[in-house]
Amino acid sequence: MTDERELVLHNVRTVRHGLDVAAHCGSDLAALGCSRVALVTSAPLRDLCKAPLKALHEADCEALVIDSGDGEPTTDDLAAALQAAREFQADAVIGLGGGSAMDVAKLVAALYSGDQALGEVVGIDLLQGRKLPLACIPTTAGTGSEVTPIAIVEDIEARLKKGVVSPHLVPDFAYLDPRLTRSMPRGVTAATGLDALTHCIEAFTNRFSHPVVDNWALEGIRLTGEYLERACADGDDMEARSAMLRAAHLGGMCLGPVNTAAVHALAYPLGGEFHIAHGIANSLLLPHVLRFNLETSPGRLALVAEALGIARSGDDTADALEGIERIEALSANIGIERHLSSFGISENTIPHLAAAAMTVQRLLSRNPREVTEADAQAIYAAAL
Question: What's the per-residue H, E or C state across 288-341?
Fold first, then answer.
């Protein structure tokens, strides 16, 4: 695309990046007049809440810790968190954790007033506002949810993830503290890192790509290619942890103005139907979608390969294919499963998955190559 196309950015008011920056959350929220803060997290991360809770206490803010549930957030998890925040009479919300906890926190802050229900805001730009201040503290380096206008929850009955997209979901504060990611298990580090990589690649190769966003995307791809294996090999490598937080944050910055495309659209049913972790679902599909897209965007994919460290040969298609192979090698090196069949998915399941994926047109419409239902079936089959 040319840089004459309108670009709309909705930015976090304050982003702090560095060791122990989460200690600023109390003073930042207190400066807005907040005194009762709902801190949304998950049970395994309770120990990581100590520093923010101490900061809130020192700022004379009462705090309630709300468990957002384990795994991918559901509509039931959101309803329970909303009820707890309302009973506490919260006047601010913090999300601490991975994308799941942060997404629940974002929706709690947005829906707290009761002016709209979740069913009224699923989709793009349907949320009318947000009355509570919102802060996000990522403990994984993948979703970039601390900077995005997006929140995803799983509808158990529909067995499909549903997205709310609105500038009102962009937090007021984001705290990127690599120390809070050091306890992240290797498997989670790997899966979330590939999620960040997918965000950057899909934004860069997107039908609605933009030169400003391209810079963020390419740097996120470069950082992931250079540091993800290090972060997986040594969780105490603060340089690698910090770099991966930057990569995830840059990927998140790409999502608002450009968003993702076919990889994410096809990954959603894998999460809804088979409860495959989001980052792993993306990594399973990424190489196959990129090969599908190659005929329409060899030049862009060659630049992705270059960002991953592949020397340019002058043949875009060959370079792009080498870049895709580099992505597959990266997944293998960090222990990511690469076949859908390992998760109990068979050929018989593919038609249903493809039909479900075709409902995610808000993302499929952004893919550089049109994806038909038959195409979706072929991509799933290639990933078996």
Answer: HHHHHHCCCCHHHHHHHHHHCCCCCCCCHHHHHHHHHHHHHHHHHHCCCCCCHH
Average pLDDT over residues 211-236: 97
Distance between CA atoms of 304 and 82, rounded to whole angstroms? 41
pLDDT band at 204 (very low <50, low <70, confident <90, very high): very high
User: Torsions phi, psi of 41, nearest 5?
Assistant: -150, -165
User: Which pTM was predicted?
Assistant: 0.93
Q: Which residues of 203-220 are buried (b: 16+ CB within 10 A; e: fewer)?
A: bbbbebbbeebbebbbbb
The CATH class of 186-383 is: mainly alpha
Whether 58 contacts 50, CB under 8 Å: no
Question: Residue ranges per domain, the chain?
Answer: 14-181, 186-383
User: Which CATH fold would you assign to the domain 14-181?
Assistant: Rossmann fold (3.40.50)
Does residue 5 have a pLDDT over 80? no
d(CA 20, CA 40): 19
Asked if residue 173 has pLDDT above 70, the reply is yes
